[in-house]
């Protein structure tokens, strides 16, 4: 095992950002495996499908806020009602380019969100948070 | 204006008056009459009238009582009260509780009543026009807010992706692979991002209503220092915060104000200075907070001190946007804060701010 942590899930509707952020994580060797999801629905489907498969669940989720259909906050509403193995194992942080004060306050107030990262993602910032929570 | 479209309801318990009224005015208005308050109410349920005339002295329900009763269910029509005698008490009651536009004594004079109905209709119309205008403005305002929100995302998202790519280039050791081109792209992206952020701050400051929440200055200042100091790691910060009691204020604007001042203090340093210092002193009092931000940077020329808070003022040496301090001043105006500045090239610059504690 090369990296410090096992699995991260990136949820972002923007393909370019998915590519950039997975590359950043790969180069900084923070995770062994990266699960890419282009929507909240896709992420929920993955989690539900692997409910009982510990070795497929992500340890960490990086969630975008503004996405069509299901936005990041709506995803969190459904996520928090998933069975406890998932909600306990998967730590969620938000990764967004938002400067909207309302969004930032809402993200900080959400008990399931440990941190709001602003894009662009800096591996050092991510590493510090991972060291603290994982 | 076509006067025949004005719908008037007249309520009086004397049938003769109803007939006389109809005879006098049926050519000018669309007239509905009722022999009692109850009958009047039935008409209101079915017809939307613009002017209501009611006689004061009626059995069961008086004119004023009727107007009081419909104040909330039919607030729009303009009301005229007819009184057979000068009943001061009824009039005082009518004005205080019935929302009456005019009162007219009986027997009425046709011309006077005609003018009153016309004026009452105009009052009705301006009320409705005003309400439509307000609704329209609220809609525009709402659209503008959504526009600002979408700029903050749609315009900034691709820019931030580009900045992410530059970071990747650095991580892969390719930053210097194409001469200085990557560095130039980075400079341009950062400048564009800075302008987007300042524009948004300016608009949000103009639009957002002040919302007061508890402010923890220790946390706020350490967050802001972390946010702005990544460009210059050898800067020394002296932070001295005394907060023994809660402070309530507009967290968004206070963050904007402190953020701009702290980032300026970091940005405008002397290049030759080995001992770069930023001193931040904050003292929370029951009625206000006193903030001083001092740096030993390049200072501000005396002749510029007057102009630094003006929109788009830039000095030749510095490469600012001319928006930072302007936004600071605008934000302070919104929350009744004050700012003073002193500066010279030897001791650097000190900004002193007071913001009321609104707990």
Outline the structure in words.
The complex is a heterodimer of chains A (134) and B (359). Helix content of chain A is 43%, strand content 22%. Chain A is α/β, with parallel strands linked by helices and 134 residues long. The longest helix of chain A is centred in the N-terminal third of the chain and has 13 residues, at 15-27. Chain A is globular and about 35 Å long. The mean pLDDT of chain A is 90. Chain B is elongated, with a radius of gyration of 34 Å. In chain B, helix 5 (110-171) packs antiparallel against helix 6. Chain B is α/β, with parallel strands linked by helices and 359 residues long. In chain B, strands 2-1-3-4-5 form a 5-stranded parallel sheet, sandwiched between helices. Chain B has helices spanning 15-25, 37-46, 63-69, 88-97, 110-171, 181-207, 217-228, 251-267, 324-334; strands at 7-11, 30-34, 51-55, 78-83, 102-105, 212-214, 236-242, 248-250, 277-284, 288-295, 338-344, 348-356. Chains A and B meet through helix 1 of A and helix 5 and helix 6 of B.
Largest sheet of chain A: 5 strands, parallel
Order of helices and strands of chain A: EHEHEHHEHEH
Distance N terminus to C terminus of chain B? 54 Å
The parts of chain A where pLDDT drops under 50 for at least 5 residues are none
Q: What is the SS-derived class of chain A? A: alpha/beta
Summarize the structure.
Chain A is α/β, with parallel strands linked by helices. Chain A is 43% helix and 22% strand.
Observed structural traits:
heterodimer; A: alpha/beta; 6 helices; globular; B: 359 residues; alpha/beta; 5-stranded parallel beta sheet
Question: How do the strands and helices of this protein lay out in sequence?
Answer:
The complex is a heterodimer of chains A (134) and B (359).
Chain A: E1 5-11, H1 15-27, E2 31-37, H2 40-49, E3 60-63, H3 72-79, H4 84-89, E4 91-96, H5 101-109, E5 113-118, H6 123-133
Parallel strand pairs in A: 1-2, 1-3, 3-4, 4-5
Chain B: E1 7-11, H1 15-25, E2 30-34, H2 37-46, E3 51-55, H3 63-69, E4 78-83, H4 88-97, E5 102-105, H5 110-171, H6 181-207, E6 212-214, H7 217-228, E7 236-242, E8 248-250, H8 251-267, E9 277-284, E10 288-295, H9 324-334, E11 338-344, E12 348-356
Parallel strand pairs in B: 1-2, 1-3, 3-4, 4-5, 7-9
Antiparallel strand pairs in B: 6-8, 9-10, 10-12, 11-12
């Amino acid at each position: 095992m090369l990296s410090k942590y096992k699995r991260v899930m990136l949820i972002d509707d923007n393909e370019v950002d998915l590519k950039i952020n997975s590359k950043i994580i790969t180069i900084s060797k923070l995770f062994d495996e990266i699960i890419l999801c282009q929507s909240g629905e896709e992420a929920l489907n993955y989690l539900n499908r692997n409910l009982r498969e510990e070795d497929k669940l992500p340890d960490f989720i990086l969630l975008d806020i503004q996405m069509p259909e299901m936005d990041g906050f709506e995803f969190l509403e459904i996520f928090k009602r998933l069975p406890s193995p998932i909600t306990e194992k998967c730590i969620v942080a938000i990764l967004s380019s938002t400067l909207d004060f309302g969004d930032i306050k809402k993200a900080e107030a959400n008990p399931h969100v440990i941190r709001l990262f602003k894009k662009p993602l800096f591996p050092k910032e991510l590493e510090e948070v991972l060291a603290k929570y994982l | 204006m076509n006067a025949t479209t004005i719908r008037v309801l007249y309520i009086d318990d004397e049938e003769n008056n109803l007939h006389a009224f109809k005879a006098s005015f049926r050519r000018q208005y669309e007239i509905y009459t009722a022999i009692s308050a109850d009958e009047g109410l039935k008409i209101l349920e079915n017809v939307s009238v613009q002017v209501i005339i009611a006689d004061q002295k009626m059995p069961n329900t008086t004119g004023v009582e009727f107007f009081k009763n419909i104040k909330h269910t039919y607030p729009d029509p303009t009301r005229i009260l007819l009184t057979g005698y000068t009943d001061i008490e009824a009039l005082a009651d009518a004005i205080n509780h019935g929302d009456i536009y005019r009162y007219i004594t009986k027997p009425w004079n046709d011309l006077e009543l005609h003018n009153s109905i016309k004026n009452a209709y105009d009052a009705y119309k301006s009320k409705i026009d005003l309400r439509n205008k307000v609704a329209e403005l609220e809609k525009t305002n709402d659209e503008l807010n959504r526009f600002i929100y979408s700029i903050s995302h749609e315009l900034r998202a691709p820019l931030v992706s580009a900045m992410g790519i530059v970071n990747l280039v650095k991580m892969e050791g390719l930053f210097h692979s194409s001469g200085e081109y990557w560095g130039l792209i980075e400079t341009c992206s950062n400048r564009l991002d800075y302008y987007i952020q300042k524009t948004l701050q300016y608009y949000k400051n103009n639009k957002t209503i002040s919302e007061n929440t508890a402010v923890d200055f220790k946390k706020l200042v350490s967050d802001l220092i972390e946010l702005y100091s990544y460009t210059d790691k050898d800067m020394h910060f002296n932070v001295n915060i005394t907060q023994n009691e809660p402070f309530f204020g507009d967290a968004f604007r206070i963050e904007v104000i402190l953020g701009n001042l702290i980032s300026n203090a970091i940005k405008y340093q002397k290049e030759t200075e080995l001992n770069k210092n930023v001193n931040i002193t904050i003292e929370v009092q029951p009625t206000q907070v006193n903030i001083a931000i001092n740096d030993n940077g390049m200072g501000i020329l005396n002749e510029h001190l007057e102009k630094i808070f003006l929109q788009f003022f830039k000095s030749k040496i510095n490469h600012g946007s001319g928006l930072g301090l302007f936004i600071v001043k605008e934000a302070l105006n919104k929350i009744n804060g004050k700012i003073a500045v002193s500066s010279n090239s030897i001791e650097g610059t000190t900004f002193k701010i007071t913001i009321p504690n609104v707990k």
